[in-house]
Write a structure and sequence with these properties.
It contains nine helices and no strands. The chain has helices at residues 2-26, 56-60, 75-95, 105-125, 130-150, 154-177, 184-200, 202-226, 238-262. Helix 1 (2-26) runs antiparallel to helix 3. It starts with a helix and ends with a helix.
Length: 265
């Protein structure tokens, strides 16, 4: 059942990855994600359904518009494949849990989809749009609380809310202590991440936040050593928050259990 769930989720991941490309392109510009239909920026022709099949269309067209030959960024199939992989892995993890948690899949699939699109947007624009956090944080809360109730585990709803509030407050304090060191987009994004991690466990929230700072520090040191960047050059923190959150979702409870066993708690 877990493998079948992963396959089904992976297919949905391809479709949501295609829509994710629309969100990545339009939301930072303040444009609608539903209209007008997608069109080639070179010739303005609408993209037909046969040219809008995730990954496959890009390969068939060899990365160029059918009408004018305008190059199509390789980012499009990469996002689609990454979305499929994230969806499949998330589906497998929650379907193979003991007991399986199918009710939470809509919320967790939304969770990992946002991890992906926010990371790409932050890398490309150095900001995390309010349009994403303001609309999808409440949506995630509704999905997770519903899953907790349907599973007969209302306590998970409380830990999800506590995780969201805790992550938000922690990053807010850091942003206030060192103005300019962290954007308020990251602070608002932390509330979204804390919700998803908190549903799994409060320990996963700690793992996710710690993982974000650990990966961010390692990457920053590597960039300083291998490139001409200086300490004053800002590196978007959203992708590191996303990586930490995904680690927390996948193996947060296992890491917490291993730590508590190691210290004899």
């Amino acid at each position: 059942m877990a493998v079948l769930t992963a396959v089904i989720c992976g297919v949905f991941g391809l479709l949501f990855g295609s829509f994710g490309n629309v969100v990545i392109h339009r939301v930072p510009e303040g444009q609608s994600v539903v209209s007008p239909p997608s069109a080639c920026p070179g010739c303005g022709n609408s993209i037909t359904p046969r040219d809008n099949i995730p990954v496959l269309s890009w390969l068939v067209l060899r990365g160029r518009c059918r009408n004018c030959g305008e190059p199509i960024s390789v980012r499009y199939p990469i996002v689609e494949l990454a979305s499929a992989a994230l969806f499949a892995l998330t589906g497998y993890v929650f379907a193979s849990a003991d007991p399986p948690d199918f009710w939470v899949l809509p919320g967790m699939l939304l969770f990992v989809w946002v991890l992906l699109i926010v990371s790409v947007i932050d890398v490309e624009t150095r900001r995390i749009p309010n349009a994403i956090t303001y609309t999808l944080t409440p949506a995630l809360a509704v999905l997770l609380v519903s899953a907790a109730v349907l599973n007969g585990e209302p306590g998970r709803a409380l830990t999800a809310v506590a995780g969201g509030a805790g992550a938000f407050v922690f990053l807010l304090i850091l942003a206030l202590i060192k103005p300019g060191g962290m954007g308020f987009g990251d602070v608002k994004y932390a509330a979204f991440l804390g919700l998803g991690l908190g549903y799994v466990s409060l320990g996963s929230v700690l793992i996710g936040i710690f993982g974000a700072f650990l990966v961010g520090s390692l990457v920053s040191v590597a960039l300083l050593a291998l490139t001409d960047r200086s300490r004053k050059d800002k590196v978007p923190f959203g992708p590191f928050l996303s990586v930490g959150a995904f680690v927390g979702i996948l193996i947060g409870p296992a890491l917490v259990e291993a730590y508590t066993s190691a210290v004899g708690l």
